[in-house]
Each structure stands twice: as structure tokens, then as C-alpha cells.
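Hi L.,

You mentioned the student needs an example of a multi-chain input paired with its predicted structure. This one should do, with 331 residues in total across all chains.
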Amino acid sequence: MPEDLASFPDLKDVQEALAARFGPALAGSAFRLGELSLKLAKEELRPALEFLKFELGFETLDDIIGLDNSASAPAGGARFSVLYQLRRAPGPLRLRLSVDLVENETLASAVPVYRSADWAEREIFDLLGIRFDGHPDLRRIYLPEDFTGFPLRKDFPLAGDTDGV
Amino acid sequence: MSNGENHPFVLARLDAAITWAQKNSLWPLGSGLACCAIEMIATAAARFDISRFGMELFRASPRQADLFIVAGTVTHKMAPIVRRLYEQMADPKWVVAMGNCAIGGGPFPTYAVLQGVDRIIPVDVHVAGCPPTPQGLLHGLLTLQEKIARSHPTKEILKPHARGSR
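Structure written out for the whole complex:
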């Protein structure tokens, strides 16, 4: 597979359209294995999702992924990353948006743009404790509602706080 | 029955009759929590044929069952439901903890998994294995039958509060 964005003219157009619209907010761009990844300032996430869906045709949000970077991030740096996997059919064309967050920072919910963000954001809140502003029903989805803590954070003990009782 | 305590011979005969009926017509609850359920299903199917021992009728309702085979990992989220199913079963009832997960959390010493179903309901027989083979489960069920045969249901009728000592 060619490792060159120039051989994917559709993706290249998408990248150029985003760069023209959100130029200063785009913090980085990487292209590997036919997938384009763009890093974005968190304030521009919602406008970027709307732009991608309504003007560039990325109608599907496949998944949202949360990462705890505390092993690699510098102190006071971006502890969490949130990744948005977008898809445009036909093609399919895939695009990944990533946003960095420091501890206790919240993120605009993607639910008003993509309905499929609902459970994905609940999952990230449940396991990592990242809050999404404007989510219609942000509560735990996998763990019991009385659970305390966020188990996929790197500082959460595997056995939990209660020793399995 | 009213002066039964003065006639232990009669009580013993009644116990034998009752436990003979109980142990040979166990009605398991059709409930599987994880991969152990596959072995439980195999135990119920033609090759291992649980009905040879008088317990082929897996019931879909706890109201109609008196044997709870806890087959698999009990998560904290599932634990209140397992407890509720047990409480919905009619007395007398028995519990088999099938597999290492149900016995003590198995390979999951984590925040999400209950470290043994005996923390929420009383267990009569533990069947170890990951998962136990159908032969293992059948051995556990035969052990349970022996345990039922040794029990004294008439004592429980006359002294309901002594039930824990069975």
C-alpha cells in the first residue's frame, strides 16, 4: 500500500479543505496505512465534526476512543486523548480526529452531530471519567451505577477499591 | 407429626422418603453466565444426558426451579440479579457453583468481578475447573444428591430456624 497521501486524492482533498477552514487549530497530521489522522484543538472539535459531516459527507461516526496517556505525557500535559473515527461512503474514506485534554477538562459532546456518539461517550465517561458537555444522558453504561472511580485510568488499582466484595 | 420429636424412627423414615424424591427430581434453573454454560448445556444434551439422574428439565423461571447452577463469571453488575433469582426460587433449593469464576473469581481478580458467588448466596457444592468438564459437573451433581440424601427435611419443617445447619 502506498504510504503517500498524494496517491489518495479524495483524502488529500479532505485534508486541504480542513486545513483551509481550521488552519491554526490543526496541530498535526499523519498518514499511515491509508488512514489520515488529524490532531485538533479541543475548542474546534464540534465545528470540525459539523463541517466534516455536513459539507464533506463523513456521515458515519464509527467509534470514539479514549486514551489515558499518563505513562507518556509530561506532568501537567495532555493526560487524555479522545479519538473520533469517521467514515465516508462510498469509498470508504476513513479519517481520524484526535483531541488532547488535560486532567479535569471537559469536551463538547458529539451527540448533536452524530447520534452514534451517545453510547461511545457514555463508555468513555464510565471507564475514563472524561465528561462530555451537552450529552443528553451521561451516566455509566457498563459498570454498576454505584461504582466509584474510573477503572481504565492508569492509576486505578486492578482489584478496585473494595477487594471484590 | 405434632409429636414427631418423640419418635425419631418415624422421622427418619419420612426424611428418607422426602430426600429420595428431592434428589431424584432436581429442577435446574436454565441460567448461564459465561463459557461454563456451554459445558452445562453439553451436560444436558444427548452425549452426557443429565436426565439419567432425574434433572433434565431446565426451567426458564426461577419459580419452577430448585437447583441453581451458577455457571460462569459473576460480575458486580450481575450480582444483584443472581441474588434475586436465588430468592425467587421456592424452598427447598440448592446451589452449585460451577467453575473457578463462580467459586472465587477465577482468572479475574478485578474490580468488575465478584470474587466468589458464595459472597451473595449459600453454595452447596463447588465444581472446580475452567471450565469443568461435563463429567466434572455430573460428579458435582451426584455429590449434591448424596448431600440431599444425608439431609433432614423434617427437622426443617418442625424447626424452620435450624435450616442453616443442613
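You could point out the following to them. Strands of chain A lie at 26-32, 35-40, 60-68, 80-88, 93-101, 107-108, 132-133. Residues 6 and 14 of chain A are 12 Å apart (CA to CA).

Best wishes,
N.
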